[in-house]
Specification:
It contains 18 helices and 6 strands. It is mainly alpha-helical. Bound molecules: acetyl coenzyme *A.
Length: about 425
């Protein structure tokens, strides 16, 4: 897909001189001003802290409309994909641009089965992490390590990309489950070819030699849904990190490892863990909602309502709406009654009727209810962001690949406006008072 220049131009007047800048429009009407020659023509750069107004690329992967709460992968509505597909189908869609037909899906699943095991030597690495190591740090290290075990990309980062993508998708699931087993001091449970992608993950997490785990279809279906909802979200912090690192020519495994680290942050994927900590704190504080709402509104307090607000969505996050419903459904199926769910519902209600949150268009995001589902299916809090990473992997790979094949690709290298000391005379060490 190519970008559409509109033929319309934007005019910029600096010091009395008018410069014209081309504009372009995406297939869904996104508008952009092309400033690629700005510095050369005017001597000025743009300054945009946090990139609130800056497009870093054109992309044909995910469309997001934050005002109307629309999210589509490759043109398909997230609601349809979450309802009707498995995560493996959606991963295929992101990696291959089209939903798979039955034969393509069977071949893809076979690849995932083939790559499910880790090299046995890699398994020893888990022994050297302290028992309290954060699973996100283990995940990032082990994914980076894959580049040493599978250096098939060599000098050409795109060689065998389909195989590398399938290998990564399959192995990241095994790494995630093994890191949990190690943290519990339990024997590792190896992947099984007779189980689905999500069924296998659950089994590797929860099966053990003395108490076999029963893979429940309802849990598998909920996990599929959660991973699909996380699968891509255009140029967010971790995806931009994957692209930026990859733009220097870094291999896929290491670029993804960098993305995992970016995702870890509490303002990004780490928010799902923070939500549960916040709900527990409210619970332990006798459900004093107003105290926490006031803390979130107090500018001198760094506390924020975790799971609320989004850089792009200025209305309901469509993923949040689907997750909220999935949360109600799975808790009912599993007969789980979680006091934190009631607290979350009440907190949401209060925030959505509070002028501070209304004025700033702050709504629950994907992280607000996901943690309650994870708790219900037995995933411990420190694994929540790892779950996010499992879901986001196909998006990262698709974005990295799109960046890598783009003929106009350049190394990512923002500019700055220097505000430090002007040139000054050097003072020898002995002369410095
Ligand atoms: N609680 C209280 N106030 C908030 C919140 C919140 N959760 N989110 C934003 N605000 C306020 C800001 O203080 C700011 O107020 P001001 O205009 O008076 O200064 C205003 O709303 C705009 O917020 P920004 O921080 O400028 O918005 P930005 O787009 O930079 O940040 C972010 C978005 C990081 C998601 C923010 O809303 C936040 O910190 N939320 C909590 C953490 C979270 O849930 N992160 C997960 C996001 S989804 C994801 O990454 C998967």
């Amino acid at each position: 897909m190519t970008q559409n220049t509109t033929g319309r131009v934007a005019e910029l007047k600096i010091d009395g001189k008018v410069y014209t800048l081309p504009t372009l429009e995406g297939t869904e009407g996104d508008k952009a001003i092309d400033i690629s020659n700005l510095l050369q023509e005017t001597g000025y750069i743009t300054l945009d802290s946090g990139y609130k107004n800056t497009g870093s690329c054109t992309s044909s992967i995910t469309y997001l409309d934050g005002n109307d709460g629309i999210l589509r992968y490759k043109g398909y509505d997230i609601e349809d994909l979450a309802e009707k597909c498995t995560f493996v189908e959606v991963a295929y869609l992101l990696l291959h641009d089209e939903l798979p037909n039955p034969r393509e899906l069977a071949q893809f699943k076979q690849l995932l089965e083939q790559f499910a095991l880790l090299h046995e030597d890699m398994i020893h690495f888990f022994d050297h992490f302290p028992p309290y190591a954060a699973p996100m740090s283990i995940l990032s290290v082990m994914v980076n390590c894959l580049s040493s075990y599978y250096p098939e990309m060599g000098d050409d980062p795109l060689a065998n990309i389909d195989i590398t993508a399938a290998r990564l998708l399959s192995k990241i699931r095994t790494i995630a489950a093994f890191s949990y087993k190690k943290s519990m001091g339990q024997p590792l449970i190896y992947p099984r070819h007779d189980l689905s992608y999500c069924g296998n993950f659950l089994n590797m997490m929860f099966d053990n030699p003395v108490r076999p785990y029963l893979v429940q279809p309802a849990v598998v279906s909920t996990l599929n849904k959660l991973l699909i909802l996380h699968a891509d979200h255009e140029q967010n912090c971790s995806t931009s990190t994957v692209r930026l690192v990859g733009s220097a020519g870094v291999n896929l495994y290491s670029s993804i490892s960098a993305g995992i680290n970016a995702l870890w942050g509490p303002l990004h994927g780490g928010a799902n863990e923070m939500v549960i900590q916040m709900l527990e704190a409210i619970h332990n504080d006798g459900n004093d909602f107003i105290k926490y709402i006031n803390k979130a509104k107090d500018k001198s307090d760094p506390f924020k309502l975790s799971g609320f607000g989004h850089r792009v969505y200025k209305t309901f996050d469509p993923r949040g709406t689907i997750i909220k419903q999935a949360c109600d459904e799975i808790l009912e199926v599993l007969h789980v009654s979680d006091p934190l769910l009631d607290i979350a519902r009440e907190l949401e209600e209060i925030a959505l009727n509070d002028e501070y949150f209304v004025k700033r268009n702050l709504y629950p995001n994907i992280d607000f209810y996901s943690g309650i589902i994870y708790r219900a299916i037995g995933i411990p809090t420190n694994m929540f962001t790892v779950m996010f990473a499992l879901g986001r992997l196909p998006g990262w790979v698709a974005q990295w690949t799109e960046m890598s094949v783009d003929p106009s690709r350049k190394i990512g290298r923002p500019r700055q406006v220097y505000i430090g000391e002007k040139q000054r005379n050097f003072v020898a060490l002995d002369d410095r008072g």
